Protein 1
Amino acid sequence: MSTKIVIGVLCAVISVLIILLFFSVFTWKSSVPVVRMPDAPGASTIQYTPPPRPKFAFPNKEQLANIRAMSKKTIEKVMDGIYIANNYALGNVVMVETAHGLVIVDTTENAKSARQILAEFRKITGKPVKTIIYTHGHVDHIFGTPVFKEAGTQIIATRTTVEFLKREQGWMEPFLRRSRQIQSGSFDEDYALKIPIDVRYKGFTGETLVWPTVTFDKYYTFKQDDTVFELYETGGEAPGHLIIRLPQKKLVISGDLFYASFPNLSTPMLAPRSAEDWIAGLEKILNLDPDYLAPCHGLALRGRTEIRQRIGQYRDATKYIHDETIKAINAGKTVEEAVRTIRLPDQYARLPDLREGYGRVDWAVRGIYHCYTGWYDGRGAGLNPLPAAVFSRELIQLSGGVDKVLTRAIKAQKLGEHQLAVELADLVIKANPDEKTARIIKSYSLDYLGYLNQNLNMFGFYRSAAAMERKKAGYKP
Ligand SMILES: [Zn+2]
């Protein structure tokens, strides 16, 4: 036997011995921290009188007038052969007329709206629908398809959109249904304060999903009659999102990469959207340099200069928030520190295209952290935190009991410090889930938080959370 083999075998044996020794020494110690569960605090004895109902700030009179004006159903003629159906549903439908047929881009969230739109389109042309394109897989873009689809209609989407739909309409559907109900403000609605508008999430039950028949990655082009269509996968609003160029018409159909709000990069209960892809998608639109832009929410943009300016600003503002967030991540700031310091510069914040009516900058910052980093901030306490009940019971004991904490919460509520009121009440709920007074106090401050802001999603989240607390307390307002 050669020396090399002997040395090799010896090394292997020694390695195994070291590994065995390592495990024999270290594995018998548990890595679970010692947790002692303090006793639950006693029930509160305080009498609580709810505050007056908050004034309904969302929407205010001006917004209500805007909503009414914006909800006017319109068939917009962008140019010969290109039409946008706007405000029939949450999402637009774009119709492109070719020599002997139609291309339909997106189909809205339900058959009822789709039928109204098709009836309007039929006043313009009787040509058959040869192609349907899904810009992405969000519910407000896909569920009207059975109305538009004819025998032999091809349906085009990216392969990633099909994967997205398998997930969102398949194994993640119960969660997504619930989170959308919460976001719309209609969860446990019997327990919510009444409001003058209908925010109910309609659920999209009974709608039929029609699966794409043609899928692609990155880029796809086809000709219908003499009209050329170029499809570019961009991502952004959703994985697999695409935009469409019609080079002969100098038109880009931009899907959801542009609408009249700061982009919704992160909706709080869902997986964040890629800011990087979104920015690259806007850059793609600028590179395609269209004279017309047809978005899937809102009306068309016209003129090269106007499009370059507005898409350019939208891209710059999104990139600014992205880059500032990356700087904060690399500087070792926590997400809470970043949220408190990163703001849209005034030159962008004052633009109507970038107001925070739908997407919000602070939520975008959280989403970007979520995209690029893990859940642990590196500072020790968050690596293996105590169960919430343990920590809250300790704190309540230190504070002198439940009544003291809730008295402070009520005082904060009276002073308009609603977030403090919510967090103090929540401390008590965590310590003792049966504590009804804490839930009722919390619900009213949640209502105030919702009513005092003018972001649609924020309003919905608070309204649902308030209703959920009241339901658990068995208390109707
Ligand atoms: Zn949409």
Protein 2
Amino acid sequence: MSESETELEPCRHCGTETTQRAEGIPYCSMDCIGARRRELEQETIECPYPDCDWSTNYSPDKGLSRAIAYHKAEQHREEHRSQLAEANPTGGNQ
Ligand SMILES: [Zn+2]
Ligand SMILES: [Zn+2]
């Protein structure tokens, strides 16, 4: 318990040096906390196919962002399906 002073550290969101902390993490203002929280709340849709690292992000609080992400994911899966269909035109009976 030698020093109670808080050191200046760059805000995690905008990089401005600040002594303020939010849950131990340096943030210079409420705006930056809010903006960061929104970033962290982004949802990720990952491609379900193995050996494919495709993914897309959307903000769950924005309906349009979500709709676009789902549309992109659906289009991407459609690409896989057409590739599989080309590789296996008979339907894949083994
Ligand atoms: Zn900031
Ligand atoms: Zn994929």
